[in-house]
Design a protein that fits this description.
By secondary structure, the chain is α+β, with helices and mostly antiparallel strands. Helices cover about 25% and strands about 35% of the residues. The chain starts with a strand and ends with a helix.
């Protein structure tokens, strides 16, 4: 399967800012069963974009816009080839717990076992673990399958019910949240079983027949747990799915703090508004790689508007604020 992805991010400032420094994590990874064939990042106002890869293999782009601007528009375009992963067994042998412990004792997974910024044990989480009967039994895969479905059933999916920096207890107490919250809850519970678990940021190709809870017009988040003989296996507690060919990975980390799609600062005194739109289109035929991905017309207007010079009055006001 092939996917074309278009990801629009727009920052609008109430009054012009004098500089923006930003980094993005939007390029899909090339590993496991997926391969990024094409990627392009457009930034308005225009600037030079640099890139590097972190220790987890995530692609990070960063840029600096030193001139005054009233909005910042980022359009990421990607083409990804996805292979269908092999089917998972229904369960693993009981000895898998011992095999897992031996793997962990080697010390390769400590980063995905320790508490992290948004996935740490709390009293509320311990109460949830007791209610869901989270403990070592049967085999690791069976436990993870059940936990994935239990989180799906326990929590209500409510967009904007939490913020990106909301503590894990907010979702646990309200029994509602978004994909990021469900991923953090599952990560913390899985790590309590001494199973390495990590956060995955990316996109989900939603089809009408799937009845997914997550929004089609936004990025998505799920988790991956390390299992003996299987390696890293993806679980999507938001939609009660095993991550497969519709889950497109962009970045992996300990939790959301490591892999936000955008992270930056600006100089000036202004309130800002963030708008995000995502489009994922599937195709069974390979794309023509020498053709540019067309930007939707309404997105192109935003890019052009960001390039327009500020009115003289706005520039004057900006100079007075410095």
């Amino acid at each position: 399967m092939y996917y074309s992805i278009r990801h629009l991010t727009k920052f609008t400032y109430e009054t012009p800012v004098s500089e923006s420094v930003m980094e993005t994590r939007m390029r899909p990874r090339s590993d496991s069963n997926q391969r990024c064939l094409l990627f392009h990042l457009s930034v308005s106002p225009r600037c030079t974009v640099f890139s590097f890869r972190d220790h987890m293999g995530n692609h990070i782009h960063h840029f600096d816009i030193p001139g005054a601007h009233a909005q910042l528009v980022i359009v990421a375009e990607a083409m990804v080839e996805m292979e269908t992963p092999p089917p998972l067994p229904e369960s693993l042998p009981v000895r898998a717990w011992n095999d897992l412990d031996r793997e962990v004792e080697r010390g390769d997974f400590w980063e995905m076992l320790l508490p992290s910024e948004f996935a740490k044990p709390t009293e509320q989480l311990q109460q949830l673990a007791a209610a869901l009967e989270v403990c070592r039994r049967e085999d690791p895969l069976t436990v993870l399958r059940k936990l994935n479905s239990d989180i799906y059933a326990w929590f209500e999916y409510v967009p904007k019910s939490t913020r990106v920096d909301s503590p894990i207890d907010h979702a646990v107490e309200a029994k509602r949240g978004v994909c990021q919250d469900f991923a953090h809850v599952m990560i913390a519970l899985v790590r309590s079983l001494r199973i390495p678990c990590r956060y995955v940021s990316g996109y989900l190709n939603s089809r009408s027949e799937d009845h997914n809870r997550s929004l089609e017009s936004a990025t998505h988040a799920w988790v991956e747990a390390f299992l003996p003989e299987l390696g890293w296996v993806g679980f999507d507690p938001t939609n009660n799915l095993i991550a497969g060919e519709r889950h497109i990975r962009t970045a992996i980390g300990r939790d959301y703090f490591d892999v936000p799609p955008t992270r930056g600062v600006f100089s000036g005194h202004s309130d800002s508004e963030l708008s995000v739109a995502v489009r994922v289109t599937a195709s069974r035929t390979p794309p023509a790689l020498d053709e540019d991905l067309p930007i939707p017309e309404e997105w192109a207007v935003l890019v052009e508007k960001a390039q327009e010079p500020l009115p003289p009055l706005a520039q004057s006001q900006q100079q007075q604020q410095q």
